[in-house]
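Write out a record, fold above all:
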Amino acid sequence: MNRRNFLRNGALSMAAFTILPRNVMGGARYVAPSDQLSLAIIGCGAQGRWTLAPQFARRANLVAACDCESRQLQEMKKIVDAETTKAKGKAYSGFKLYADYGEILARKDIDAVIICTPDHWHAVMTIEACRAGKDVYVEKPMSHSIAEGRAMADAVARYGRVLQVGNMQRSWPNFRHACELVRNGYIGKIREIKVSVGAPAIPCDLPAQPVPPTLDWERWIGPAPFRPYHEELAPPMERRIFPNWRNYKEYGGGMVCDWGAHMFDIAQWALGADDAGPVEFTPPDKQTLTPLTMRYADGTVMTHEPNFRKSEGNAVRFIGDDGIIDISRSYLDTIPGNLKEHKIGDNEIKLYRSDDHYDDFLQAIRTRKQPLSTVETGHRTASLCHIVNLCYEFERKLLWNPEKEEFIRDWEADRRRSNPLRKPYTLKPE
């Protein structure tokens, strides 16, 4: 019997004598130390250090981290130690650092992993984590290709794991409210959706630079095509920026995937299309200045229009027969104007409510119920983004079958549903 089982069985024995409600011990959100989950974080870059580590350190036990850059690892340890000490009210020690994520997956005391690496690593790590019996929180966009997303979803199902995608806008009240207004028909039938996110991915042609002595560049590249180091892909920490690997198709999907995984995701949620997607993708027309256009099977049209509100950034606009809804991280605007204040009734469609994306994942681990942003949801959203990128690249119309997840009469596009992986990396579960 290991220590965790001993403590758990001992607690059950004590319950026969004294049972206290948790709200008596520490409020409605109190989680007993014996029930706190042990997590590890894979990827100590900007998103991992600045966002995910502090969030999860306040809600669970972060016990380990992995990265191929030793200075980022040490910085991660400082952040986790400080956040955990603040959250628990006592000095924290025992946070372990690894260069090889396989050592984290081999630890039996770790319940789940947080994957916040560059996109080209998401699928391989997720599949291996599922096989190792770990639940997964993986950053958006969930996958780096359509085939990777399907392989990830299959692995989650095969091994009975919980996976939450980092599409955290679904846990923001204003986005949920906008989607509920659309779902309940408050602006009538949706005729068009405009999505404002940045540019598609481009090929990487950066010149070679010397590899920093603290970086294992071979490990950073992993399953992606090998190329020489450049600081735009893995910048030194002193630059304090989100790195630009996401702009290059070998490692990311451009802003179409990076922000599209947020904004196209909201459009899909509002349309009730989490298990589907557009069936037709038409590239922009330079002569008529029409944007890239997507069409759903019911005739709803969605366009990719960066800055449709000029310089106001990433957003979604729903245009219906009876009104308009604009939604972003900084505003919810409606026509008619009082619509945004409308309360959705108990007898109307209400979407999955989560007010905390990270806690939603932890609760799903405990209950084994599906979280808000599931692997299938993340796969459909990421697939839409990948097809948009292909449509820009091919500069021709693409017909897509969401049920079969394949292109219609287009062998070249079908071939690009997947990316080649360097050996020995594979998407096979065994």
Remarks:
- Residues 1-30 have pLDDT under 50 and may be disordered.
- The first strand starts at residue 38 and ends at 42.
- The two ends are 29 Å apart (CA to CA).
- Residues 105 and 132 are 6 Å apart (CA to CA).
